[in-house]
Amino acid sequence: MSDLSGIVKAYDIRGVVGEQLDADVVRDFGAAFALLIKPDSPSVVVGHDMRESSPGLARAFADGVTSQGLDVVSIGLASTDMLYFASGSLNMPGAMFTASHNPAKYNGIKLCRSGAAPVGQDSGLAEIRDTVEQGVPPFAGQPGTVTERDVLADYAAYLRELVDLSASRPLKVVVDAGNGMGGHTVPKVFERLPIEIVPLYFELDGNFPNHEANPLDPANLVDVQAKVREVGADAGLAFDGDADRCFVVDENGDPVPPSAVTALVAVRELRKEPGGTIIHNLITSKAVPEIVAEHGGKPVRTRVGHSFIKEKMAETGAIFGGEHSAHYYFRDFWRADTGMLAALHVLAALGEHDGTLSDLTAEFTRYAASGEINSTVDDQVARMLAVKDAFAGRSGVVIDELDGLTVDLDEAGWFNLRPSNTEPLLRLNIEAPTEARVTALADEVLAIVRG
């Protein structure tokens, strides 16, 4: 088979359906995954999102798994965190068919071992790719079987057990599902809670007719922001296509930074386990480790990416972890990421609070930030080296290269410059005491990056 490195990414498999991904190659991925996990499990749980290609690809993958003698439990339509729930609660390896926030022509596979443990390049994906490229060896034994199982109600009940909203005052919340899997999971999760949901785009449609299901792009928050203001809601939630990420907007329609959500949830988790460890990636606000320490917790900094977060959580026994991209990880959820659980925490905190969401989150937002600024460059390494050289000799500057290039200018702010894994881009994130300082630092760094 041809080189598959173009679709086997750092954390998942992803490509254009019909060009890079079809039933035949997905069947081989299923067989290769079965070979990888066969020593540890006799069964695999498989779920899929609402994209038109997803059911067929999920069936092809199941065919590959069963061709190697393993059984498949199909949970059908699912969010990615619902698949993680199934993997954790059933103690089975899992496969989720989704391309998350990518456009309709894409699809992909997120894989995990039993207990929702991550499968990335260094933990199985490269081995799976090699097996498919070299040709999956045939299996002479009895093929496995496929059974169907609905876990939506169990998933919803489990989340409600983890966050108590019984003392919450009534809230009105706008939810933008972006025609993604949030439209399937939100109604069940919020069943019987003291929350009035105002739904936007709950119809499952993998063509995304209203806007891209990528709330990281501010353009895709416009509708939820406008609806919150229109109906006088207490808050708004926006989910990505596979509903594992959740963005929050306050009663004014203003986005609540994911770092503020990380700090808020961390404080709540530390109440349950005083002195616990909280993971934050190196692009989250400096406010996160400050607030964690102020509340008696142990902040631990890590690289960007769910594999690194989950590994560090396992290593440290961390109770919670958060990323700048609105991925939130919970020890009580098999160290997997679930935006839904983070959303419930935010709403529980708001429901116990007399004021507004903007009042509640103000204490967790201490600095100005740029958000992610992307630059297309011909030579990522050379541009990063040029930035490093420009700042290295300055007084008080601390540079580290844990993940890309992080330059700490002490009280004047900090920035991180990272290469994209999949595109010829450099991603710049800046934080400083004031907006003016953020702008000045952005101008300075981008002048070097963009030449």
From TrEMBL:
Domain of life: Bacteria
Range of residues in the leader sequence: none
Example of a GO biological process term: carbohydrate metabolic process
Cofactor field: Mg(2+)
Keyword field: Isomerase, Magnesium, Metal-binding, Phosphoprotein
InterPro entries in UniProt: A-D-PHexomutase_a/b/a-I (IPR005844), A-D-PHexomutase_a/b/a-I/II/III (IPR016055), A-D-PHexomutase_a/b/a-II (IPR005845), A-D-PHexomutase_a/b/a-III (IPR005846), A-D-PHexomutase_C (IPR005843), A-D-PHexomutase_C_sf (IPR036900), Alpha-D-phosphohexomutase_SF (IPR005841)
Residues annotated as domain Alpha-D-phosphohexomutase alpha/beta/alpha: 8-134, 154-253, 261-367
GO MF term set: intramolecular phosphotransferase activity; metal ion binding
Alpha-D-phosphohexomutase C-terminal domain: residues covered: 372-446
Gene3D superfamilies documented for this protein: Alpha-D-Glucose-1,6-Bisphosphate, subunit A, domain 3 (3.40.120.10), Alpha-D-phosphohexomutase, C-terminal domain (3.30.310.50)
Family assignment from sequence similarity: Belongs to the phosphohexose mutase family.
UniProt-listed PANTHER family: PHOSPHOMANNOMUTASE (PTHR43771)
Protein name: Phosphomannomutase
Protein species of origin: Amycolatopsis arida
